[in-house]
Write a structure and sequence with these properties.
Pfam families: UCH
Structural class: alpha+beta
Order of helices and strands: HEEHEEEEEEEEHEEHE
Largest sheet: 7 strands, antiparallel
Helix content: 10-25%
CATH architecture of one domain: Alpha-Beta Complex
Number of helices: 4
CATH topology of one domain: Cathepsin B, Chain A
Number of strands: 13
Radius of gyration: 22 Å
Protein name: UBP16 hydrolase
Keywords: Hydrolase
Strand content: 25-35%
GO biological process, one term: protein deubiquitination
Shape: globular
CATH superfamily of one domain: Cysteine proteinases
Distance between the termini: 29 Å
GO molecular function, one term: cysteine-type deubiquitinase activity
Length: 216
């Protein structure tokens, strides 16, 4: 589906991106880089079939028709805030002909605001809201190398999130303002071994997958 957007608002977000604390090695920095505004120029110019058709008329002889390329801007933003947010961290990098495990710690918060990464016309955000908040409830961690290793998980046992139920079952946007993490107890799960842990232990883990549930 091709939509014609106002150039002045097409790249606008729900919240100001410039106010973010973009500490390198954090989830906010990763999301900012993933949703940054890119300029498509030179060999990356955009091929516009519509402009070509308008300039040369209906396509009859493709070989004799000259394609038109133009400079453009590209940005990936969230247009529909999900009930459950799953973030998959790339934990490998190319090293010659081999893949190497990335063990660097990535900082992630218990509550994250997606508004700076959502389009200003995000479909399921109530009008006037400038926050899209999520609370952490699960983490998957991988230890080892690219060839072998072990997966463990952190999960929060918590009370039912009524706002999340409304969003999943009835598609209703959360209205109440919640800025605190969902209360509960964290547990570390490794095969059949389960142990209660602190939130600080969870936040210091080498996250591979992060699971958040929507608060607002």
């Amino acid at each position: 589906e091709v939509l014609t957007e106002d150039p002045e608002t097409a790249f606008c977000t729900l919240a100001n991106r410039e106010d973010l604390n973009l500490e390198e090695g954090s989830i906010h920095h990763c999301l900012y880089q993933f949703t940054r505004n890119e300029k498509l120029t030179e060999t990356n110019k955009l091929l516009c079939d519509v402009c070509t058709q308008r300039h040369y008329g209906p396509k009859k002889n493709i070989k004799s028709e000259k394609c038109i390329y133009t400079n453009a801007k590209k940005q990936m933003l969230i247009s529909l805030a999900p009930p459950i947010l799953t973030l998959h961290l790339k934990r490998f990098q190319q090293a010659g002909f081999n893949l190497r495990k990335v063990n660097r710690h990535i900082k992630f918060p218990e509550v994250i605001d997606l508004a700076p990464f959502c389009t200003a016309k995000c479909k399921n955000v109530a009008e006037g809201n400038t926050k899209v908040l999520y609370s952490l409830y699960g983490v998957v961690e991988h230890s080892g190398t690219m060839r072998s290793g072990h997966y463990t998980a952190y999960a929060k046992m918590r009370s039912m999130n009524n706002h999340l139920s409304d969003l999943v079952l009835r598609g209703q946007s959360p209205q109440a303002l919640e800025t605190e993490p969902v209360k509960g107890q964290w547990f570390h799960i490794s095969d059949t071994h389960v142990q209660a842990v602190s939130a600080s232990k969870v936040l210091s883990s080498q996250a591979y997958l992060l699971f958040y549930e929507r608060l607002l």
